[in-house]
Amino acid sequence: MQNHLLSALTFVPVLGMFAILFIPRDKSYVIKVVAAVTTGIQLWLAVQMYIAFDTTTSAMQFVEHYAWIPAFNIEYFMGIDGLSAPMVLLTALLSFICIFASWNIEKAVKGYFALFLLLDAGMMGVFVSIDFFLFYIFWEVVLLPMYFLIGIWGGPRREYASIKFFLYTLFGSVLILLAMLALYFYNDPHTFNMLTLMETTYDYNFQKWVFLALFIGFAIKVPIFPFHTWLPDAHVEAPTAVSVILAGVLLKMGIYGILRINFPVLPDATLWFAVPLGVLGVINIIYGALCALAQTDLKKLVAYSSISHMGFCLLGMAALTSAGMNGAVLQMFNHGTISAMLFLLVGVIYDRAHIRDVNGFGGLAVRMPIYGGMVALAFFAGLGLPGFSGFISEALTLIGGFGAEHSSSTFRWLTGLAVMGIVLNAAYFLWAYQKIFLGKLNEKWAGLSEINGRELFTIVPLAIITIILGFYPMPILGMMSETMNGIIEMVKSGAITALQ
Amino acid sequence: MDNISSLNYFIPELTLTLTILVLIIYDLFLKKEESNYTVYVAAAGLVFTLVMLLSSYSNVETSLFLGMVAHDPFSFFFKFLFVLTAFFTVIISSTSLEMKGKFHGEFNTFVLLITLGMFLLVSATNLLLVYIAFELVSVTSYIVAGYLKDSKRGSEAALKYVIYGGVSSGIMLYGFSLLYGLTGTLEIAEIGRILSQNNSGNLTVLVSFLMILAGFGYKIASVPFHFWAPDVYEGAPTAFTAFLSVGPKAAGFALLIRFLNTAFVSQDNVNMASWGALEQLAWPEIMMWISAITMTLGNLVALKQDNIKRLLAYSSIAHAGYVLMGIVVLTQDGLFAMMFYLSAYYLMNLGAFFVVLNVADRFGSEEIDGYNGLVYKAPFLAVCMGIFMFSLAGIPPTVGFIGKFYLFAALIKGGSAYYPLAIIGALNSVVSLYYYARVLRAMFVRGEAVDSEMPIIKTPVAVIGMLAFPVLILGLYWAPLSDFAHASLKILITH
């Protein structure tokens, strides 16, 4: 049965964008309402998807398959499985929340929300495309609005940050493009269909080169050390809602790409690269945490913590165990919600004080008790305290890493090091909390107002999800497990057939 | 086919010639300040030519005038582009402030003359006619390049253009004469046949080819024959720069393709082109180097430009390098990719120059800094320019991306020998983004919001919109264009 749920999810924001383009620019309230309604519909559709989603299969669901450019065998081919479904949910949720987080945007409101909806459509498209060409188009469509959102509505160094982001990611994109073409021509008949690409057995050396090209392209987006330097700049300059999307969804696109394409299509190269991937993961964890420790800018601190948290995903994936893979994807979802909370909370204080320096505050818990409580909750979730969702996913990746069947001794060492990262994570979160909220109230900030209802509305749903998934992760974990087992199976059996 | 019956196939060219004559005579009866009226004659003539061209389309290759001229889908493809380019150019020049009161009658005549020259250039199969058509295009271009007589830059542009053009066409002519000496004929197909039978004298063949390449390279502005381009682009009236950056460049590529394809390259196998008489000259390697150096140099120098016309000039040099990637493989896929890319390039580059023209007219600046805050002053123009810039940088969903995609696809399909060039090309796109983004940054990021938008001049804005729309739409659904390019791959081989 073909239904059009995925097309609707992807193109509802585009319709909203066109609607906004036809609204006169001085009617900024109408524009915001249209944007909220659009993303609201999208969220409702995503929930429908969640209800109808079949968790007992690893096959593609809600498939839409049409010819697009037959001469080049390019298809309009969409579908989701347990890997993409949580991401679809996350994208819809965060887009909806971010519209409200952007409510106080004043500069060129029309352009902002139009671009935001385009960004939303692009992200959704990335997660639902099965045709590699379609995937690539959406992948690039994400770049354009992001460049403008940082460049126009960003902070003082926005010119530098936006072009750095753009150049870095485009560099990655062209590598993906070349790898995509290499895969396309390797297959006969030529195809961009990812499912067909997965069935072909590729030459070992070919696999390595294509894997590396794709990996660098995706690694820039994650970002994996040493391709991470654009991230702190982009985060610091981006407006709050854009930071949320950047950390919550865009970083996940990189990991998603690796899991969607690199792993199943190039199984031999995946095994060949598993140990380097694990090592990079641990570098991300430790290096990200150490950098976060050195920051005084709260937003930069959270940005580096993202790099650290993404490392857990890499470690879990590299281990190629069921626990590791499930943990990695769950970590993607959880980090999406937790980092979104963190950035939203940073935005709240920045909107009031116009600084983010952790040393510039002190004793704010007296003045803003609700805010202080929310930040405490988000920080505890971020540092992986049991009872919050982050703990479960990080624990799963570590269990997965410890149980790796290939190069098991190396992975045990790596996992041991990764645990050190958790301690470092705790250190900088607690240290930052102490400086901002505890101690004697800095009189300069005696006039700060408490977090308001709109801000709470953006944060509380995320907090509830974080806590629920901390006690009972099955609503998300259940969606993905079949697919994860399928991918592991594909890597292992694919590699064996190729080596014979 | 003999001369009289050939005339039946030659009606578009005859229409164009007639229009030119009418224009000259009509202009004599107009007062100086009325010379703008000639645009109606020119536009009507071009529309009429377009109709004739469409009705003369035939799917078979025919040789006209005793083997001088080819009538094939390949030349139709380019003629179609040229007529549209000329049409947009005369329309937009009529509203340009830069040319206000400056002999529009002559300008329109010259544009149509160049168009006629390009018509002949893309269909010539005899070296003599190639040279005549080449000079018709060049000499007329020299005049128009120096059209702004009171501008110092205009004079400099024209002089540089004459000198470079004269030298390179001289070198090319010498190359022709060497080929004539070796083979005793000027028919391109015949030259190829004789050279492939008699492989002696390779050095002479190589030398004559390199000399001929000097002429072609000058027309397409590839390294090392590109030095004229930035000065001419900057000094010529912007409407003509737009025309120059797409028309003669495409004509040069068409000539290069026909020259190589008619005589030297056989396409018996779709995946591999065999280089015939050129097999022993390391020809693909030479072209590969030229392509790589052209795109890299164009892009690197463009990074440093502050004048937008110079920036676009270097960018157009870089684009010549991209298109040459198709010449390097020269398979059917390569040719197809080139033709697709040239038509994409035609849309986006023409559009970009028209925006430059419009901005210069309204805000008086050709510097990138003059674009600061354009989105607040002229939002439609800024958005169109944004589309053209993204398309030139090759970012989806624009037709420029699809064009690059086909070029890379042709290279990667051609085999691992071409991978390095594909990687160089891909990295070049990243470099090029930086300077295109400078324009974007000026338009969107810098500058302050103003309350009032500037009043719009309707005609140029409509033309710009007509170019920006297909850039986007063909980026999402490009089957019509790719089908057209595929159908136009039929090149006359023998007669």
Name the features.
heterodimer, A: 500 residues, mainly alpha, two-stranded antiparallel ribbon, 19 helices, globular, B: 495 residues, 2 domains, two-stranded antiparallel sheet, 20 helices
Walk me through what this model shows.
The complex is a heterodimer of chains A (500) and B (495). With 500 residues, chain A is mainly α. Chain A has a domain at 266-500. Chain A has helices spanning 5-21, 28-52, 84-101, 109-128, 132-153, 158-186, 194-199, 204-221, 230-237, 240-265, 267-293, 298-319, 322-353, 364-367, 369-382, 389-402, 408-437, 453-471, 474-499; strands spanning 61-69, 74-80. Chain A has a two-stranded antiparallel ribbon with strand order 1-2. In chain A, helix 11 packs across helix 19 and helix 16 runs parallel beside helix 18. Chain A is globular, with a radius of gyration of 22 Å. Chain A starts with a helix and ends with a helix. Chain B has 495 residues and is mainly alpha-helical. Chain B has two domains: 1-268, no CATH class; 282-495, no CATH class. Chain B has helices spanning 3-6, 11-28, 38-55, 73-95, 104-123, 127-145, 152-183, 188-197, 202-220, 228-235, 238-263, 283-302, 308-329, 332-363, 374-377, 379-393, 399-414, 419-445, 458-476, 479-487; strands at 62-64, 69-71. The mean pLDDT of chain B is 86. Chains A and B meet through helix 5 and helix 6 of A and helix 17, helix 18 and helix 20 of B.
